[in-house]
């Protein structure tokens, strides 16, 4: 079944930043680049897709006109023509992955073990460059691209922090060995495709987590700066976390004995979706208060917090007065609705007994 141009544009509009339109067209490498680099290079690739999508759809459908033009190009050119956009994309994605790998390694570890970055960064750059090089109907040699990355890192610069230099050489070597992809790759099952993309996405997320954990920090009320990784570690050792774990465990044990439906109902009730519990708290009443008690307490508090009685703090009194009114209306409406439902239930029961009789 052919790919729809309209559906592709819809996916581009609502999920283009995640590369959903490219995944739909079977362009998984491009989808991964779009997702991992924030919509294809901070939105630039997403915008460029506006006028590129028709060609992508024709490629996916292998339309007669597109294939005729492709065959003519393969006959006329020994290698694919140089594309400045593709080369820039290789530089960007290679550098992006390289810097992400650089920042994922903590400085305290890198200072005494520089070989870690020297092994990791050229590989990350080469992978980024190669992914872009293999998008569409072109391919290249990952082997030579990777060798070039390590060569400039170990032999020339001897500095793994020179990410841009590594990306430039890797991109040049990748372009030099570019060729046409003359045979369409074998189509994989969608589950396999999702698994591969998920594995790549997991690596990217892990590197971001390492970067944030090693470089991000929070500032306390006392002005003390604490690294995020230390703050997270302290949180997992805190009484609040232990209490949360115990609560979750108790909920799980209760669900096993009483059923998940009962636990879910109680959980929803605890969230107070109607605002009933909060309303009782505002009026300083318990949950068994009658309508008369609610009305009496409301009149007392409304009189006490009327803005005219607090000329020096009129805004605060106004806010409290409105809160009291809203609480009274909430409880009154709930009581009225329950009374109506109870009456309907009684009428239904009475009618059933009459019919039986």
What does this structure look like?
With 357 residues, the protein is mainly α. Helix content is 75%, strand content 3%. A two-stranded antiparallel sheet has the order 1-2. Strand 3 and strand 4 form a beta hairpin. It is elongated, with a radius of gyration of 32 Å.
Rg result: 32 Å
**Span between N and C termini?**
64 Å
Query: What string gives the helices and strands in order?
Result: HHHHHHHHHEHHEHEEHHHHHH
Shape: elongated
The largest pleated sheet is described as: 2 strands, antiparallel
Helix percent band: over 70%
Care to count the β-strands?
Answer: 4
As a percent range, the share of strand residues is: under 5%
What's the number of helices? 18
Topology:
Layout: H1 5-15, H2 20-24, H3 28-36, H4 38-42, H5 44-61, H6 64-76, H7 84-104, H8 107-112, H9 114-133, E1 138-139, H10 142-157, H11 163-176, E2 179-180, H12 190-215, E3 217-219, E4 225-227, H13 228-236, H14 239-258, H15 260-270, H16 276-282, H17 291-304, H18 314-356
Antiparallel strand pairs: 1-2, 3-4
Helix pairs in contact: 1-5, 3-12, 7-9, 7-11, 7-12, 9-10, 9-11, 10-11, 14-15, 16-18, 17-18
What's the short story on this structure?
This protein has 18 helices and four strands. With 357 residues, the protein is an all-alpha fold.
What are the defining features of this structure?
single chain; 357 residues; mainly alpha; two-stranded antiparallel ribbon; 3% strand
């Amino acid at each position: 079944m052919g790919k729809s141009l309209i559906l592709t544009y819809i996916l581009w509009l609502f999920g283009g930043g995640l590369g959903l339109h490219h995944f739909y067209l079977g362009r998984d490498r491009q989808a991964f680049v779009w997702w991992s680099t924030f919509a294809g290079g901070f939105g630039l690739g997403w915008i460029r897709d506006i006028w590129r999508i028709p060609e992508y759809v024709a490629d996916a459908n292998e339309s007669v006109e597109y294939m005729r033009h492709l065959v003519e190009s393969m006959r006329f050119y020994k290698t694919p023509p140089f594309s400045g956009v593709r080369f820039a994309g290789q530089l960007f994605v290679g550098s992006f992955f390289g810097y992400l790998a650089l920042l994922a390694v903590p400085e305290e570890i890198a200072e005494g073990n520089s070989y870690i970055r020297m092994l990791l960064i050229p590989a990350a750059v080469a992978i980024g460059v190669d992914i872009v090089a293999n998008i569409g109907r072109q391919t290249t040699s990952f082997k030579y691209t990777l060798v070039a990355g390590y060569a400039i890192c170990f032999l020339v610069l001897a500095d793994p922090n020179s990410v841009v230099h590594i990306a430039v050489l890797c991109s040049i070597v990748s372009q030099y060995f570019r060729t046409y992809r003359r045979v369409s790759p074998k189509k994989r099952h969608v589950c396999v495709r999702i698994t591969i993309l998920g594995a790549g996405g997991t690596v990217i997320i892990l590197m971001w987590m390492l970067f944030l954990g090693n470089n991000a920090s929070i500032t306390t009320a006392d002005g003390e700066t604490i690294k995020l990784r230390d703050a997270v570690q302290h949180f997992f050792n805190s009484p609040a976390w232990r209490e949360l774990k115990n609560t979750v465990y108790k909920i799980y044990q209760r669900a096993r004995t009483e059923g998940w439906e009962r636990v879910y109902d109680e959980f929803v009730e605890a969230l107070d979706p109607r605002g009933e519990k909060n309303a009782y708290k505002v009026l300083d009443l318990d949950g068994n208060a009658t309508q008369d008690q609610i009305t009496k307490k409301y009149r007392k508090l409304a009189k006490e917090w009327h803005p005219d009685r607090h000329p020096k703090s009129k805004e605060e009194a106004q806010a409290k007065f409105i809160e009291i009114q809203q609480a009274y209306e909430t409880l009154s409406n709930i009581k009225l609705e329950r009374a109506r439902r109870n009456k309907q239930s009684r009428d239904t029961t009475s009618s059933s007994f009459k019919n039986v009789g």
